[in-house]
Structure formats: structure tokens, C-alpha cells
Amino acid sequence: MIISSSLDYREAARRRLPPFLFHYIDGGAYAEVTLRRNVEDLAHLALRQRVLKAIGEVDISTRLFDQDLAMPVSLAPVGLTGMYARRGEVQAARAATRKGIPFTLSTVSVCPIEEVQAQVDRPIWFQLYVLKDRGFMRNVLERAWAVGIRTLVFTVDMPVPGARYRDAHSGMSGPHAGLRRMIQSVLHPAWAFDVGLNGRPHDLGNISAFRGQPTKLNDYVGWLGSNFDPSIGWADLQWIRDFWQGPMVIKGILDPDDARDAVRFGANGIVVSNHGGRQLDGVLSSARALPAIADAVKGKLTILADSGIRSGLDVVRMLALGADGVMLGRAYAYALAAEGQRGVETLLDLIAKEMRVAMTLTGARTIADISGDSLVQAGI
Ligand code: FNR
């Protein structure tokens, strides 16, 4: 298959994965309005073409949280990636590290923290959810710190799980989910062989290690559902701020007032995100939310953005709207499902190439040169 964009990987992933997994990655909350807005609002932002600016070689490298990065891109936390490809978290982490960007390990990964970090020679980032089980939170933070992880991404837009109709229809959740997943898996023998269905691909490393026994996918929904904590506020997070000595990034900010609260809290960064349209359907796209947030807090902390980014052009658009860097979610999940580590590396090469083209033709030689002037009009 000829791969020329992340959309090709989406199609390749659709072919390779059992439907319950493809739709788990691809889908969003309720009617998927925000999911579509994320992509469409970015696409509608007109880049401002400039010519004869004697740009020469563009430099896409940057620095975030005192780390030198090959480009202002990181891999977002994506749960269950070890089910898209064999030891998927390790494969994605290797690809990111080889390409000089950070990989963020989700709380709900198949491979445990220790396994992933041992396979790469740069510290990965670690993502944590707000959970009722504070013992689990403290334990997992200690484990992350012990293996050398310093950047903590704290996801706050999941005080309750969002309703995803596609998951109910596809067999990921809902009645007879286990049986339906089993049947679909048998019908996809190449995938089942790859992820090692005879082993225990559905064990969740970070969770099982705490509990002393593997947590199966069937238990996962129940565990998560009973563990999200809607009663939590900023003050309840103080112990984590005190405990964690490295950069702390709050993920899931969509409003300037919350961004200001994050500054007051002492966060080092935020991720402007609606969880890829997977939580509250109907909220703003990240691209629309970002300019007001950048107005409120730019320069006070590092602003990352995600949701809807499918190309290097989208990366440049997010930077032009005020982000210092971005996270890729589905774009890399599709590539991982389609071709493992090689797929993610190819995707990152494509993103870098697309960024260079966009920067050259908008007259930006460095990342710092990208600004609201790179768009025909700032904002949408
Ligand atoms: C996610 N996301 C997510 N976020 C998080 O903080 N922890 C997690 O475990 C997950 N899991 C997860 C699984 C899948 C399949 C997807 C698609 C997303 C959200 C993710 O980090 C990111 O915010 C979005 O994916 C960004 O949107 P795009 O790039 O997918 O449009």
C-alpha cells in the first residue's frame, strides 16, 4: 500500500483491525459533532502563502520543558495501544525516540511503565487520570519517577467517561461485548497472531502491577467506570503538585478561565484538548478554543494542543493559533495499527516534511517565526 498521508494509515488500520478496535480508535462521543469539528475547523484555517522570502533551509527543532525536540510534536497518551500491535506502546515509544520527540504512555497501557522506559534511551512522558483510588495514583507516580520519567501529563477532562455510541454498536462495550470481541478477533487471524492473542494481550500493565494480578479488558470498563472521580477540584490535586518534582502538564483545558486556574495551580503546561472529541460532544474544537487561551496564558506556561491534527500543515496551524507544541492521537494510532513502529516512523517523517513545506511557503524559517501572521486571519 502506498502511504502518502495519515489518512492512508486510517484506511490501512480499518482493514487490519477487528471492527471493535478500529471503531474504538476512530470514534468519538455521542453524535461525533466535536470529532468532526476538530478536523474541519483546522482544515478551514487558511495558511497565508508568502513567496521569495529567501527562506533557505527551515529548522523545525524546538525546546519544550527543557528538552530538545526534533519538532514541536509529541505522541499523545492513547489507551490500549498494546492491542493495536504487539507490545504497541514499546513500538510507538521507539519510533518517537528515534525521531527525537516524546512518547506519552497512557495510564491504561498494555505494557507497564518499566517495560516501555527500558526499551528507549530518553525519558518518556507519563499520563495519569484523576482516580478515586489514590493509592493506585501514588504507586504509579512512584514507579514512573523511579524509572526516570520527569514529565507528567495529568488528564482532567474525564471526571466521568464519555458515552461513545460506536463502542456499544461495535462490541467494545455493551451487551455480550466479550463474546462479540472474541468472534471479531477470530475473524482477524493476522491481527490476533500479531498481538499475541495466545498470550494475554488484554492485560493492562500499569493496573495489574498494582493489584498483583492481570486486569483483563472485560474488567477494564468496570474498573475505570468506578474509579473516575467527579468530585475532585484543583485543591485536591495539590498533593500531586507537591509530590511530583518534574514538569506537570494539565491535559483537557478548553476554556481561558481554566487555563488561568492552571497557571495559579503552578502547572508547567497545559494541553488544549477535547480528548479528540471523545468526551463531551458539542464542545468547541481545539482550534477554536486555542486563540483565547493563548491570549490568556501565553508565556506563563507551555501551551500544547491536540484534537484533529492529521498533518504537518495542521501542526503549523495550531502553532499559528498560539500553541508551543502539539500532540498527535489518532494519526499515530492508525499508523501503529497498520505498520507498527515502522508506520509511526513513516508518519512522523511525513509530518516533518509537511511542516517544512508549510513553513517555507508561509515564510517561516524557524518555529519561532510561526505566528498569527502565518494565517490569513488569526482565529477562525
Ligand atoms: C485517547 N486519548 C487519551 N487521553 C488520555 O489522556 N489518556 C488515554 O488513555 C487516552 N486514550 C485514548 C484512546 C484513543 C483510542 C484515542 C483516539 C484517544 C485522547 C488523546 O490523548 C488525544 O487527546 C486525542 O487523541 C487527540 O485527538 P486526535 O489527534 O485523535 O484527533
UniProtKB/TrEMBL annotation:
Could you tell me the membrane topology recorded for this protein?
Peripheral membrane protein
Location of the active site: H275 (proton acceptor)
This protein's GO cellular component annotations are: plasma membrane
Q: What keywords does the record list, in alphabetical order?
A: Cell membrane, Flavoprotein, FMN, Membrane, Oxidoreductase
Q: Which residues bind glyoxylate?
A: Y24, Y129, R164, H275, R278
CDD domains from the xrefs?
A: alpha_hydroxyacid_oxid_FMN
UniProt-annotated binding residues for substrate: Y24, Y129, R164, R278
Q: Which InterPro entries match?
A: Aldolase_TIM, Alpha-hydoxy_acid_DH_FMN, FMN-dep_DH, FMN_HAD, FMN_hydac_DH_AS, LldD
As recorded in UniProt, coiled-coil segments are none
Q: Which family does it belong to?
A: Belongs to the FMN-dependent alpha-hydroxy acid dehydrogenase family.
Which purpose does this protein serve, as stated in its record? Catalyzes the conversion of L-lactate to pyruvate. Is coupled to the respiratory chain.
What PANTHER family does the database record attribute to this sequence? L-LACTATE DEHYDROGENASE (PTHR10578:SF85), S -2-HYDROXY-ACID OXIDASE-RELATED (PTHR10578)
Query: Mind telling me what this protein is named?
Result: L-lactate dehydrogenase
Organism listed in the record: Magnetospirillum fulvum MGU-K5
